[in-house]
Amino acid sequence: MSRRAILIGTAVTALFLTGCGSTTTGTASVTTTASSTADTSSSAMTSQTPSSSSSSSSSSAATSESGTSSVIPAELDAASKTWFTNFCTVASGLEADLTAASKGTPDKSTPQAYQASLSTQFTAIAEVFTGAATKIGSVPAPTIQGGDAFSQALTGALDGIGQALLTATTAFAAVPVTDNASVEAAAATVATGIQQSATEIATTLGSFKNDITPEVQAAVEAIPECSILSK
């Protein structure tokens, strides 16, 4: 994983590439849409990071040795370190949480049982995202420039995709089904139901994409819980 790797997106994408083969086309579509949104969420953090109000003026300097550029990490204060440590801890656990939420083979004994088991899976996946938003939002925002807005946007994105999936799942569960094919057709529409929300979230988070400095990114990567970002 490169230094600019997407922590949340990596966890989610890895899960969907390796763990969704046993689920239905509808489930795969839902998780792919959710993955795309999570990708954008963390991309806004790791592409470039808001400049730190607590960094020294020398932190923006870069040195060059044998033609190789070296970035001097910014100095993060305690509040910012705590926020990023919590963020990385929560994000690192997403893959395991999503694996647990999506594991198991749907009950296809009857169309109704099939629909109910998929609804349970969709709900569990949604709650992983809303739960992650709650955990990240439980810690005061980092004091870096734009940190409060970024924290709110990130938690809003995670909660937003979870809430959109819960709403789409409620609609899916109410669709009359007559056979397994009709269940799968209805399940496929769940992804469509959350696509607009995902697009809006991606647009919002995209505005933070160019507000990040390599100095703060380097400082975040130096936090033990965030070491995955530099691998």
Task: Explain what this protein looks like in three dimensions.
The protein is mostly helical. It is 64% helix and 5% strand. It contains eight helices and four strands. The strands form two sheets. The protein has a two-stranded antiparallel sheet. Strands 2-3 form a two-stranded antiparallel ribbon. Strand 2 and strand 3 form a beta hairpin. Helix 2 runs parallel beside helix 7, helix 4 packs antiparallel against helix 5 and helix 5 runs parallel beside helix 7. The termini are close together. The N terminus is likely disordered.
Helix-strand layout with pairing:
Elements: H1 7-19, H2 25-46, E1 49-50, E2 62-65, E3 68-71, H3 78-92, H4 94-102, H5 111-137, H6 147-173, H7 180-206, E4 212-213, H8 214-221
Antiparallel strand pairs: 1-4, 2-3
Helix pairs in contact: 1-2, 1-4, 2-6, 2-7, 4-5, 5-6, 5-7, 6-7
What is shown here, in short?
The chain has 231 residues and is mainly alpha-helical. The protein has 8 helices and 4 strands, in the order ααβββαααααβα.
Count of beta strands = 4
Shape: elongated
Strand order of the largest sheet: 1-4
Low-confidence stretches: 1-25, 44-68
Oligomeric state of the chains present here: single chain
Rounded radius of gyration (Å) = 20 Å
Strand content is 5-15%
Separation of the first and last Cα atoms: 5 Å
What's the rounded overall pLDDT mean? 74
Query: How would a crystallographer describe the biggest sheet?
Result: 2 strands, antiparallel
Taken in chain order, the helices and strands follow as HHEEEHHHHHEH
Helical proportion, percent range = 55-70%
| Tally of helical segments | 8
Q: What is the structural class? A: mainly alpha
